[in-house]
Design brief:
heterodimer, A: 182 residues, mainly alpha, 79% helix, B: 366 residues, alpha+beta, Thrombin, subunit H, 15 strands
């Protein structure tokens, strides 16, 4: 449990060491499960990566509590994802998975959340990318990197901060327009 | 200070400063009060705050994904088994199937071998003792069987039986002949033919499978009792190194073979047999083994495969024991009286053979 929470905290902060540890501890059994079920090693890698993203989306929510062992959670999610992959386009998988129902409900919820978040984020990324330069960099510098307006003004060669501020405001409005339009 | 006419741009700027914590505590309170006083601006602030948070999260998530990718790549580079993955994957996937298939194959192979009696044959053929009866006409039989099959496809009855040849020799003047048991096993009828070409039908009087001996009696009416048998039977064991010889029918003519007694026990330490060093062949079975004085000391029975010059002869002692154990009923009044006058004693080998060969027969088994 202690290792688990260590890894989870590390992942929440985007710590590479935590990701490495996660791979070392949890990838081999999951890879084995997938390879034993008609999967290749490459497919196992893809599934595990997506599983880690599901974990990430789950633990970066404010209301996150780890209700089971990390291994159990990852295994269940991977299994679910792999089954989904195997039965793509087939309705039968809903019928098949009535067994261990409670377990799979929680897993299913996590995966659904992850998919929604993924869509949302893709949407935001698309919006940012659709913004074009210099808006994109101005907004990132200001809102994400937390740079001061003066620094931005200097970087982009605006004659005074007010111009920069106006520019930044216009960019933000455009981004919001793109984001909310879709 | 209440700024009711704040433009949206100005408000967002103020909100950003608030969110980034750039305001003094006094200003913060002022900003909060302004939001309370202007609900539509408050709503804008909530929306703006969420939007900025989403931007940040997106960035953090994208970074995380990027890191994850890098770590994953490094991990897989370090942990992927070297390239023959296709084969290994295939093996990983089919391991169980292969194991099951192999198990079934093994079971079915051995059960088939067992069912078809392979092991019984194996036991028979792996023994390196070979009995020396002659399979007279394997090729002919095969060809005949084929011809017969072609000619009478519907006539199943006409099947040629096995046909063996070996040697036998007379032990009493009233027509008792000894040969090996293995020669006459499964015989329908037994015929004896001497070197002159005269053929007699013989009946099986007694067999002793353990000692590999069979006593025949010539039942043919054309057979006349002979006057005397030239050789005698030596009951005591002969010594190693003794000069011995035999006459047998490895082919249709009599063949003389000469050698020496090389051991006083037979195959696998059999005390009722000698090992002799005489070239013998299929067909020699049942032939007499004589010493230089013309005493019968044994009956040729077999040889050891793969060992040069290791032939075996059953001791006369075993023959006499067998004769003594014949039930009186089987003899039908014709007693077995062994000759005790040796007529070969002082003759040269060639003369011994001349006298001897009248009493040695080809045993033909049908």
């Amino acid at each position: 449990m202690q290792i688990d929470s260590g890894i989870i905290n590390g992942i929440r902060e985007g710590d590479n060491l935590a990701i490495q540890q996660l791979y070392q501890l949890h990838f081999p059994p999951i890879a084995k499960m997938i390879i034993n079920n008609r999967g290749s090693r490459e497919e196992a890698q893809d599934v595990f990566q997506e599983t880690v993203m599901v974990l990430y989306d789950k633990i970066t929510r404010d209301d996150f509590v780890l209700s089971s062992r990390l291994q159990t959670f990852l295994y269940a999610v991977s299994k679910r994802l792999w089954l989904k992959h195997l039965t793509r386009g087939e309705a039968k998988y809903h019928k098949d998975l009535i067994d261990n129902h409670e377990d799979s409900l929680a897993t299913e919820e996590a995966i659904e959340d992850h998919e929604a978040i993924e869509a949302n984020f893709t949407h935001m990324e698309d919006a940012l990318n659709g913004l074009g330069e210099p808006c994109k960099t101005i907004l990132r510098d200001f809102y994400i990197k937390g740079k001061s307006m003066a620094a931005i003004c200097e970087k982009f060669g605006y004659t005074n901060t007010d111009n920069a501020k106006t520019q930044k405001y216009k960019c933000l409005q455009r981004l919001k327009k793109i984001f909310f339009k879709k | 200070m209440v700024m009711k006419t704040l433009s949206q741009q100005e408000f967002i700027e103020w909100a950003d400063a608030y969110l980034r914590g750039e305001l003094s505590s006094e200003d913060r309170l002022q900003f909060e009060a302004y939001c309370v006083a202007n609900p539509e601006k408050a709503e804008l602030f909530t929306q703006h705050k969420a939007f900025v948070a989403a931007m940040n999260k997106t960035e953090a998530r994208a970074n995380f994904k990027h890191n994850l990718n890098k770590v994953a790549q490094n991990y897989h580079k370090a942990h992927t088994p070297k390239t023959p993955t296709k084969v290994i994957n295939l093996w990983d996937r089919l391991k169980l199937n292969a194991a099951v298939a192999a198990a079934i194959a093994i079971v079915s192979v051995f059960s088939t071998l067992w069912l078809t009696g392979y092991y019984k044959n194996l036991k028979k053929t792996t023994s390196d003792y070979s009995a020396l009866r002659r399979d007279m006409n394997t090729v002919k039989r095969n060809v005949n069987a084929q011809n017969a099959a072609i000619k009478n496809i519907n006539n199943e009855k006409d099947r040629e039986t096995m046909h063996y040849g070996a040697t036998g020799f007379m032990i009493t003047k009233n027509g008792y002949v000894v040969t090996n048991y293995h020669v006459i096993t499964g015989a329908d009828s037994v015929h004896l033919q001497n070197h002159k070409g005269e053929s007699f039908k013989a009946g099986i009087v007694y067999t002793n499978p353990e000692k590999d001996l069979a006593i025949l009696h010539i039942s043919d009416s054309t057979f006349k009792s002979v006057k005397n048998i030239p050789y005698t039977f030596k009951r005591d064991d002969s010594d190693m190194g003794e000069d011995v010889y035999t006459i047998g029918f490895p082919r249709d003519e009599a063949v003389y073979g000469q050698g020496y007694l090389s051991s006083s026990t037979g195959y696998a330490g059999d005390t009722l047999a000698y090992q002799i060093s005489i070239p013998v062949n299929p067909g020699n079975s049942g032939g007499p083994l004589l010493d230089k004085d013309g005493n019968v000391i044994g009956i040729i029975s077999g040889k050891q495969k793969g060992i040069d010059g290791a032939a075996f002869a059953i001791k006369t002692k075993a023959l006499i024991e067998t004769l003594n154990s014949i039930p009186a009923d089987s003899l039908k009044g014709k007693n077995v009286v062994l000759n005790n006058k040796n007529a070969l004693n002082n003759l040269s080998r060639t003369d011994q053979i001349k006298k001897l060969q009248d009493y040695v027969y080809i045993v033909k088994v049908y």
